[in-house]
Structures are given as C-alpha cells and as structure tokens.
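User: Small ask, check this?
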Amino acid sequence: MELTQNAEDCSFEVANATHQTPYLSFEVNPEKIIVESNQDGFDGNDVRQICRTGRSWKMQQHGFVGEKGIGFKAVFQVASKVHIQSNAFSFYFVYRRDGTVEERLGLVTPLLADDPIPTDERPLTRMTLIPNSTRYEDLVAHFDKVHPTLLLFLSKIRQIKITVQRPQRGNTITTFIKEAPLDATPAVLTRLIKTVEGEVGGSDVAQEISRYYIFRNLITGLSEHDTRPERDGCDLVLAFQVDESDLPIKPTQYDVFAYLPVGNFGLNVSFMSPRSVALLIHLVSDSSGFHLGSKQNRSEV
C-alpha cells in the first residue's frame, strides 16, 4: 500500500502527454521485489523528502494520499535494503532494525550508486527491495490479497501489474486495469478489469470485469485536522457497482477508502441520513479509521 501511495502522489505528465498508461508494477521473487512505474521521476527535492520523516510537504496539498512523511519508510518492515533508480538518480538505503545505532540510521542515510536509468528508458522509477527475515509466503500472501478496487479511487495510476514467482509452481501474472473517461462528468462509468495468467492447473487466461458508477462531490466547511492544516474540505466519492444491464449489485458489506482502502465496515443501509453522510465524510477526510465497536458510532449509523 505504501508504495502505491507514493506512486499515486507522483506526476505522470510525460506518460499522459505521450498517451502511455500510468502504471505501477511489482515483480516478486524470493531474492527481491522490483517495483517500477512510469512516473516523471525524482528531482532533488524528492530525494531530500524521501530521506526525512514526519515533515511531508503533502500535508499542505489537496489530492495527495501521503501526509505523515513516513510512507516510504514502511517498506523496511519487510526489506533490509532498498535501491532506488529514478532517471539520473541512483542511491540505496540499508537498514537493520535490530542493528547498531549507525545501522538503524540507514533508514534516512542514502548511499550513492552508479547505475542510473538509461536515457532511452526514461521516465522510469525503479525500487528494488531486498527482503529481510520476513517469510516469503507472507510476502506473497500480501500481494495475493490485492483487489481490483484498489484502483477505483486513484486519480493517476490506471494499471497495476503483479508478477509472482511461486516455487515449484511457476509464475502468475495478475493485471488490474481501470477504464474510465478522463473528462469529469456527474456520473462516471468505470470498468475494472482483472486478468490472471499462469494459474496452476492450466495456461488459460482468466479475466474478471466489474463496472461501477462513480459520483464525486467536494465537501467544504469540515473541521481542521492536525495532519491537514489550513484545509477544510475533501472530495466525497461514492462508487456503486452495476451489472451489464446497469442494474445495481447490492453488496453485503461496504468498503471505505481514503484514496487507498481503509477498511470494510458493513454499513448495510438502504438510505443515508444526514448524520450517516457526515460519518462517511469523516471517514474520507480522516484515514485514521472508524470503529463500529463504539456505541456512539453504532447508534449514529
């Protein structure tokens, strides 16, 4: 999730200008995880920001997923080394959670590498993660849980590809694609396409297509939040799944997103009262989550 967040917050102007699909890809094997995207690439400020914690410039900006200044650092929960190549920049971090003070400082201390992205392959940003002691099965399980709706509320990334090497079983390639008009309209029909290649038991390609109508509205006059100073608004976006005949598909549970998935809260209601709408607005504007275990929240829903 953290790497998806970082890619979504980047610019894809070159890809869009050259009619390329903004994408994010993961190649997973027991030795390393390679993450690539065709974002415009790092500049000097990006390098400085990725070496800091808790001082993200995104706090002041509208429409950015990251806000706490620690998103990228979360990769060290599963990696001991991260090598970043972005256009002309090439550097890496080495971190040992149980190491010496100097080794733990590797979290914010970049080391220079000498293999930038070749000019004819730019724009391209590549991150190579060397796993720590995390079990490979646990890493794979994380990628297997990715759902097509991950793309639903992202505004820039339109394709995610995940290639997983499965020992003694070969590779599987899962691709998620979002098809939606670029022009904003009151109700946007969005198609999510999931394609799986190389599943065990055959070489056939399996494909799933889901359709959603997306409604978007800017909400203003909200209470200020410490992580979003000087901002009193947010986009409230609702997605309704429909079948091929445009008839609604009523879910048994409802997923809540703050750009990326926050959780599944099972708000199984046939209509929304003003107070319920206010709760949803709070969920969208505050990614810290929502607890239905609270007596007050249950009564309001």
